[in-house]
Amino acid sequence: MNDGFIRTAAATIPVRVADCKYNADRIIEAVKEANGKGCSLLVFPELCITGYTCGDLFLSRRLQEGAVNALFRILKETADTETVFVAGLPVVCRGKLYNCAAVCLSGKLLGIVPKSNIPNYSEFYEARYFASYTDRDSVYLLLSDGENETEVQFGRVIYVCEEQPLFRFAMEICEDLWVTSPPSVNYAEGGALIICNPSASDEVIGKKEYRKKLCDMQSARLVCGYIYADCGLGESTQDMVFSGHSMIYENGALLSEAAPFSGSFDKPTIIYADIDLEKLSSERLKMNTFPTGTPENKLNLQFFEMNIRSIEPNRYFPKMPFVPANKNERDDRCREILTMQAAGLATRLRAIGCKKSVIGLSGGLDSTLALIVTVRAFDMLDLNRSGIIAVTMPCFGTTSRTKSNALILAESYGAQIREINISETVRSHFADIGQSEDVHDVTYENAQARERTQVIMDIANQTGGIVIGTGDLSELALGWATYNGDHMSMYGVNASVPKTLVRHLVDYEARQSEERLSAVLRDILDTPVSPELLPPDKNGEIAQKTEDLVGPYELHDFFLYYTVRFGFTPKKILRIAKLAFKNDYSDETIEKWLRVFIKRFFTQQFKRSCLPDGPKVGSVTLSPRGDWRMPSDASANLWLDF
């Protein structure tokens, strides 16, 4: 099923009140258009076959028969389509008239769902015509247009596609959403992943915003897709005005919207959105508090067969899912995260009665962010910033640029500065273990990282402080840290901040800072990401660039997000990565780095199994005590087979 993606739509047709033939023509037109675009589920507005504003005409047998006759003609004219669609009409059942939604597919009537909550206040007076359907059980109803007849399930039902069981949808109608206990709650408990709402919501000042909030929150709290189709132009304006404000949501995210009064008097207005059913199902699986229903509120299931067409998902996948695209939202996020990081550290310092912190300051992004957070924590506690001990430890790969930036940074923040050149200590260690300085292997690199950790750990003991960890979430995912080297600290403030977000946090700080501090922060942002464990090039510039070795962090953060947050398969991650980065990397390059990510993510779990404490600030973290528990010897073979 297209890796879980299914194309859905909401259509507003221009109606003529009580003209069932004209309205049926517009419905047929819209179904054929949506079918041609690979749509699997299409929702029309409430009572669209007759029009919502028929008033006492609803009680006319002529209109009731006309609506049923039009429904049979719609079924006949759409028999060659493969789109499930929902259209509204009045239906008589057991001597009562109900406001209903008919579920149709390929010329067949799958079922009829009646409205449960009938509004009879303010401008609404539906109780004058329609009964409220409150039964839990469905019944079978015989419908006929005089020539054809069909027996159909009538009641509250969840519709399930036999070929693709994740395609499970149900209906609530307009007011059903606005009440204290919407039917969609029971539908979601029963397994429905999409809720359809054929609606006739009139437009008054302020209602648009409230309507959006309702759909937003209902889709979020039920972890579902929500298709809201609103009636629009052509309805009677005798007492109300209808705008055709249709929306499609997925778990609190607005995927598509028809702005009020944006429709046409002549042709249907259709909005489309590709809902990710696998994503919704994955979210529910994680939530052990998400109810699955009890025997007393189990709903009827209606199984149907259909061919779900292959589609190329027509939706936006941000290249940096951890970073809001909107600048104002991004700044708000940065402000909040920095505060959370600082509050976590401040709480730890206060709990242990500690007034000193030690940071290995390299002049790179991660240690810069750790210093920013530590400064904010000290300010929260009204501690003198001189209690922050910034230690720069040049060695074989250190460049003058990063060393200079580290010194200026510490000075600008009012921290203590210690410069300890570890070159001779490392050489002595090489002599002890028989390592040649000319062999630039992993031992050559890691000996430097571990020596730096030893230095700052000992200074922490010496001063009564704690070592502040600098490693970020992306490095933890890839295992790009020296075990018991920079991998270790006494509190890791960046542990749940991915590399793509680190840059924006430092940039945010630069824009809030005085000129000299801002300048050094910007130069740090412009410096290539590197552990600086190999000697510089002949020009004294950084030779060892992390992204040349492990791949672009923007790709790895993308892979990380969809692997951990939603549990997507590598095949699906590759598919959406190709869409997100189609203008940046070739398909072969994306697949290459995805395989690198998977291999490293599995083989480096042992480093994550013994992480120091650190604050959780986002929905994706890898703490072994919190969000990610994984055996260190798990096989990656299943994930590499795609």
Can you offer a commentary on this structure?
- By secondary structure, the protein is of the alpha/beta class.
- The chain folds into two domains: 2-304, 4-Layer Sandwich (Nitrilase/N-carbamoyl-D-aminoacid amidohydrolase), CATH 3.60.110.10; 327-640, Rossmann fold (3-Layer(aba) Sandwich), CATH 3.40.50.
- The protein has 20 helices and 20 strands.
- It has helices at 20-36, 61-77, 175-178, 183-189, 207-221, 277-286, 327-352, 365-380, 400-413, 423-433, 442-463, 473-478, 499-512, 515-526, 546-550, 553-565, 570-580, 587-603, 605-608, 637-640, and strands at 5-12, 41-43, 84-93, 96-105, 108-114, 139-144, 149-154, 157-161, 168-171, 194-199, 225-230, 247-250, 253-257, 269-276, 300-304, 357-360, 388-392, 416-419, 466-469, 491-492.
- The chain has a seven-stranded mixed sheet with strand order 13-12-11-10-9-8-15, covered by helices on one side.
- Helix 8 links the parallel strand 16 and strand 17 (388-392).
- Helix 13 runs antiparallel to helix 14 and helix 17 crosses helix 18.
- The radius of gyration is 31 Å and the shape is elongated.
